[in-house]
User: Fold these one by one.
Assistant:
Number 1:
Amino acid sequence: MSTPRYRQLTDVLRKEIESGRYPIGSLLPPEVELCEAYGVSRHTIRDAIRLLREAGLVERRRGLGTTVLAAAPPVSFVQPLGSVSALLQYARDARLELGDVQTRPLTPEEAEAFRVPTGEAHGAWLLMEGVRDRDAKPLSLTRVLIPPRFADLQGEVQAWSGAFQELIAERYGVVVDRIEQEISAELLDPEAARLLKARRGEAALRTLRRYFSADDSLILASDSLHPAGRFVYAMTYHRDS
């Protein structure tokens, strides 16, 4: 079976965007010009541009035309759900480039955001913030906090390439037994958009995770913000037996 004409045109336009013929920030030619250039109908043009838009390469606005957003599809990370090891895999596969590391008590806002009881927010918590990337492309803006009993790891976190939970397990013998996770949607503010090389006001997925040991003590908490199209949760459901 031959490839539909609109998909062929999508590939052609994608290559021309990648080559720089249509640079980032420029407008694609109007539909009538594309129809004449490629000998296709407006319907074919619209289907091809729809695929480019779904790939994150262009943005179409009524009255303004179609703007080129990227020369290549945004990187995305697919994460299966269902086990502690599956959730830890993300930290192994996507390195966190730390931009800020400090030890201090939690502010009331931080304690509330990470669900830490007010009475436990004092002391020298280890707080880290940075951009998690894969193949040198940003996936998420991530904040991590570690309780005071593990805060002396501050001198080791910059050089650690795996999950911080595994560093804690290696140094202290405390392993993750349970993970609580909350998923929500929001819009990127200007600073988050700048750090993630995304658009201000773009939809984003926020994941809040809290990792506990077998005695229900908090080991670590993380808060990650992923721009739309860069992170996918994959879930499989089975009928109850």
Number 2:
Amino acid sequence: MTTSIDDANDVKDFLRQRAQETWDERQIPYYLSLVAIDLKQKGVDYRTFTGPLRLAQWLTREDIPDTKLVAHPTVKAKVGLIPAGVDFDFSSEPAADQIHSRSRPSDRRGQELIKFVDSLAAMPETASAELSVPAKVLIALLRS
């Protein structure tokens, strides 16, 4: 990868290489939201090269060799670069709710504590008013 970025062609080369690397590693676009961060780590402000244009506007006017610009049809922030020779459809990405709905081990931890608290809620109010549960017991249930 280019070690120094001195002009617009260097920026284009950087973007082309990052798009290819991102695709090779994850089969997703190199999102424009990452460009400023990546260039800043190299000591470069992309606005030096784009002028008054936003990055997405600049990319629609400039030709980045061997890449194409893709945009999500409904999520405005999902704009990125992919290698020119690949086909990508945002519908092939896993939906965010599918990712978060997978049960993780940490989600299963503490189920016994939840069951215990639910059973306490079913107790008569007079009985629960006098009840005290040591923290040690609650922690043990949380860890189970």
